[in-house]
Amino acid sequence: MTDFTRTGHDPAAFEAFYREHVQAVQRFVVRRVDDPHLAADLTADVFLAVIDTAHTFRADRGDPKRWLFGVARNVVAGELRRRARGLRAASRIAGRALLDEDDIAALERRIDAASRARELYRAMDRLSDGERAVLELVALDGLTVQDAAKALGVRAGTARVRLHRARRLMREHLVSSTAEVLP
To answer: ∠ at Cα 21 (17, 23), nearest 5°?
Structure first.
């Protein structure tokens, strides 16, 4: 067992590894964040992750320093994603404060009007990629079956079969979803 693989359970091995790499990790982190408190927290998080995941290190994939930077990259990226989600949530909440009752009623009408389109898209999600591509090119983009076949690099017969299947599956889905709604 090398010194590095012991870092997850041997305090002396961890301390030696930490002292050797803490400055490099701090430099890595501060190039990506501009808040000193966040940089210190993320540096600590990187080394906590090292303790938790040291057992996953594989020497045949490189040295511990490269692995450490992979851990650091994941920790920083996770924090940046978390912060982005928080900012999006805050902006959604702020946008809600600007809505009055008339705005909400108008949005509800638009949502109701678009419900059939959402149902169509859900049905299209059940199609294979090939079926969906032919259906979109013919039904939405107005291409002929032959032109759609050329665009997709398949034979016209293949495109016709895919279009036939797509239409049949869409019809079946829409009939079944309509039957579920009717009393």
So the answer is: 145
Task: Give average pLDDT by consecutive 10-residue segment, the chain, 183 residues.
Answer: 66 89 90 87 93 82 82 91 85 67 80 78 87 89 90 94 94 74 52
CA 175 to chain centre: 32
* DSSP structural state of residue 35: -
User: Are 82 and 15 members of one domain?
Assistant: yes
Q: Residue 165 carries which DSSP code?
A: H
Contact 28, 45 (CB under 8 A): no
- Which one of 74, 95, 116 terminates a domain? 95
Q: How many CB atoms lie within 10 A of CB 27?
A: 11
Helices (H), 6-144: 11-30, 36-53, 64-97, 101-113, 115-125, 129-135
H-run or E-run covering 155: none
The pair of three-digit structure tokens given for residue 154, joined into one six-digit string: 């398949």
**Shared-domain flag, residues 73 and 133:** no
